[in-house]
Every structure is written in C-alpha cells, then in structure tokens.
Amino acid sequence: MQYKQPTYVQAAILDWAGTVVDFGSFAPTQIFVEAFAEFGVAVSLEEARGPMGMGKWDHIRTLCNLDQIGERYRAAFGRLPSDDDVTAIYERFMPLQIEKIALHSALIPGALEAIAALRDKGLKIGSCSGYPAVVMARVIELARKNGYVADHVVATDEVPNGRPYPAQALANVIALGINDVAACVKVDDTWPGILEGRSAGMWTVALTCSGNALGLTYEQYKALPSDRLAEERARISTMFAPSRPHYLIDTIAELPEVIDDINARLARGETPQGC
C-alpha cells in the first residue's frame, strides 16, 4: 500500500481559554496570583502569564523556578519551594479555579461563527486545555450553555505529559478517527500549545490578540490605536517565533480563511512538517 498525502484539512484542535472562551485568558492567570497570595508570596499578573499553556501543576513549578519568585518564597518560608510546596499551591489553586471559572466563561466574539464555518467545510472539532479534567468539566458545561460543544476534549491530566508535549493533540487525532496528522490544525494562544501542534506534526495557528500574549479584554483590544496594535502584534510575533507557528492571526474569527489557505497548500503537495 502506498502512502497518500492528505489533500484537505480534516480537523481543527482548539485550545480553550484565550482561543474559544475567555478573551484575554484571565481565568487562569488571575487565580495563579490569588493562590500564591494565600501563601504570602506575591506574583504579578505578568509573571503568572509567562508559562501559560502548560498543565497547571507544571505552570506553578515553572513559576517557582523563577529566581525572583523563589526568593520571595524563601523570604516567607525560609527555603526554596519543593515539589511538595508546589503541590500545596496547586491544591489551593484548584478550588479557586473551579469557584471562579464562570466569571471568565464568555465565548470569544466570532468563535461560534468561525467554528460553524469549519464544520461546514467538513472539519471535526477537537480540543485540549492546560486545565485538568475536574476544571474542564465546568468549562465544558458553561460553553455548552453558550452554544459551543467540541467533538472531543482532552484535559492535561488525561495524558502522561501535557504541553508542550504532543500527547493531547495526538489523543484527539485517535479519538476523532483522523487518518493523518498533516490533515490537522492546532490553534492556540500560547507557545506551549504551538509547540504541541508542531511536535504532533500538525499545521499550527497562533492567536496574537485574543489570549495570553496580549492579555487585554475584548473592549481594550478594540480600543487600541492602530499604531499601538501594530507594535503589539510585532512583539507577540517575536515571542511566538521560536515555536514556529505556520500562521499568526488576531482571533479565531479569522480561522476559516486560514483553513482555505491550508487546503490550497495541501492540494499543492505541501506538508506542515516541511515548512
């Protein structure tokens, strides 16, 4: 049997916060700040955003590994944070996240229309998140009430390794019955999510304005002067560059046009691994 390269996109694998829901990705970042504060350790919103996209325990571990945060922890407890200390912060983070997730559950403007357009093109909709399953259960429930239901969801604790490893994206491929990773598009607002897609052999689309990188509400984003928005896009593009996304767009609303372009590239024999 001879290998046949796919000629059209079969599935989009979408992130959640900052991609489909929660413009600006405020739900996780604000709770990281609050969880650390309960241990007497100050963490800024900017610091909390740094490792966004990872599983939440790994996110906290990465924050604790930062020199400045480690020293603040040492000042409070007389030692650098161990893995047990990270787990203690994580266990405080979790109930706070579940309690407050509804405050940041609104769908991103244009998301429903874009996803409907993808379905009209024959795509299946997979999804994955840095949230664990217990939080995702609440996120999925709230999204359903707002009209969004993915065909499959993979939480970070449902695979051996979360982002930037490819396991969550590949779990979607298996569950959705996709026959080639080159027929998949991974869409995310964080560099770990883009690395996930790249490592899985997929096309990747980075979102520059709806999520963690810009970190503004939709109203603040729309109010940005054109020159400031251009500066922010350039900054965010530089931030994403090492993860090598195939495309950068402002929000998911622009995704249907990207799918058309990828279909044209696939028809010409291009592959995501080759570019």
UniProtKB/TrEMBL annotation:
One MF annotation (Gene Ontology) recorded for this entry: phosphonoacetaldehyde hydrolase activity
Example GO BP: organic phosphonate catabolic process
Active-site annotation: D15, K56
Gene Ontology cellular-component annotations: cytosol
Pfam families in the record: Hydrolase (PF00702)
Reaction equations catalysed: phosphonoacetaldehyde + H2O = acetaldehyde + phosphate + H(+)
Cofactor note: Binds 1 Mg(2+) ion per subunit.
UniProtKB keywords: Hydrolase, Magnesium, Metal-binding, Schiff base
The protein's Enzyme Commission number: 3.11.1.1
Keyword check for NAD: no
UniProt cross-references to CDD domains, sorted A to Z: HAD_PHN (cd02586)
UniProt cofactor(s): Mg(2+)
InterPro entries, A to Z: HAD-like_hydrolase_sf, HAD-like_sf, HAD-SF_hydro_IA, HAD_sf, PGP-like_dom2, Phosphonoacetald_hydro
Function: Involved in phosphonate degradation.
Family indicated by similarity: Belongs to the HAD-like hydrolase superfamily. PhnX family.
Subunit structure: Homodimer.
Record's protein name: Phosphonoacetaldehyde hydrolase
